[in-house]
Amino acid sequence: MAYDEKAKAPVKPQSITLSERAKLTVTGVEEVLSFDEERIVMRTVLGELTVLGSGMHIGKLSLDTGELGVEGLVSELSYSEREAAGGFWSRLFG
């Protein structure tokens, strides 16, 4: 088996579970980009996920397993696509 095959980390599955708009569990989380009581922005295996609400706090975060737990009132979940490598200027002039 080649070294490159061993070095590749398995892709973590993405799932979202929301219970009564008060408890949110997200798997497949790669990084939490920002958070406060009204907005949590994270990078997941399927793109950037933004969670909007009020009184939210992160109760559990494990980047080893890719799991995030949030408690508080959740009002909106939205994805934005990942940017292409190199950003705007390389797409424009590349």
Q: Spatial order of the strands in the main sheet?
A: 1-2-6-5-4-3
Which secondary-structure class do the elements indicate?
mainly beta
H/I helix tally: 2
Please give the number of β-strands: 6
Reading the helices and strands in chain order gives: HEEEEEEH
Poorly predicted regions are none
CATH architecture of one domain: Sandwich
Mean pLDDT: 85
Helix content: 10-25%
CATH fold topology of one domain: Immunoglobulin-like
Please give the radius of gyration in angstroms: 16 Å
Q: What are the main properties of this structure?
A:
94 residues; Immunoglobulin-like; mainly beta; globular; 2 helices
Q: How would you sum up this structure in a few lines?
A:
With 94 residues, the protein is mainly beta. It has helices at 3-7, 87-93; strands at residues 15-19, 23-27, 29-35, 39-44, 47-62, 67-80.
Explain what this protein looks like in three dimensions.
With 94 residues, the protein is mainly beta. It has a domain at 19-81: Immunoglobulin-like, CATH 2.60.40. It is 13% helix and 56% strand. It has helices at 3-7, 87-93, and strands spanning 15-19, 23-27, 29-35, 39-44, 47-62, 67-80. A six-stranded antiparallel β-sheet has the order 1-2-6-5-4-3, with no helix packed on it. The protein is globular, with a radius of gyration of 16 Å. It starts with a helix and ends with a helix. The model has no long low-confidence stretch (mean pLDDT 85).
